[in-house]
Amino acid sequence: MTLFRDDGVVLRTQKLGEADRIITLLTRGHGRVRAVARGVRRTKSKFGARLEPFSHVDVQFFARGSELVGRGLPLCTQSETIAAYGSGIVTDYARYTAGTAMLETAERFTDHEGEPAVQQYLLLIGGLRTLSRGEHAPHLILDAFLLRSLAVNGYAPSFDDCARCGMPGPNRFFSVAAGGVICGDCRVPGSVVPSAEAVGLLSALLTGDWATADACEPRHVREGSGLVSAYLHWHLERGLRSLRYVEK
């Protein structure tokens, strides 16, 4: 019987029995973790409200063994709020849907429980912080998060040099299967010809050039979001359920 302490973001919750919940978190030191929080659905629960999606919390776990992730689910015995990002997200539909898609993405990119995913964890913290403060349009923050999640997991798309032969850009064709923009010689069936503005927007979102991203016209933003969605779908092998509700 071992106690573990870690900080993490609540990705989702599931009802268990009459008063308990299964909490799924993305933690700094242990990656994705599922734990049982007993009694948190009771009105007198001391920390139930802290274990809601979008919450950044410091959590204590109790596990029956030397490893946090084992045969059975650990118990969440204590929780302290580090940042309640949900308060700036759940009251706005655009922020809420974008944030929900971010949580789902983080969970999908951390398939194996107990394996640290520090870059994905830090990326999620930064994305939720920016979203809760309303610093940029929610759909732009989401697309930036999706592109960077792909990058930290080894699927960074190319928006300048040809993804196949390395020919210096700009290149006019785009293929999700090829890994981004490609030249005429490397063009494959199914390639599209996006506008230069949409490709420039995606490059800006990936690199953090928010001045360029914020100034982009809505039609190019929608075009870029379509490319991001297709690219993400290709690498995850199925789309995100929450993306259909995101306002564009």
From TrEMBL:
InterPro entries: ARFGAP/RecO (IPR037278), DNA_rep/recomb_RecO_N (IPR022572), NA-bd_OB-fold (IPR012340), RecO (IPR003717), RecO_C (IPR042242). The keyword DNA repair applies. It comes from the Bacteria. Pfam families: RecO_C, RecO_N. Residues 1-68 form the DNA replication/recombination mediator RecO N-terminal domain. Keywords: DNA damage, DNA recombination, DNA repair. Involved in DNA repair and RecF pathway recombination. PANTHER family: DNA REPAIR PROTEIN RECO. Belongs to the RecO family. NCBIfam families: reco. This is DNA repair protein RecO. It comes from Streptomyces lavendulocolor. The gene is recO.
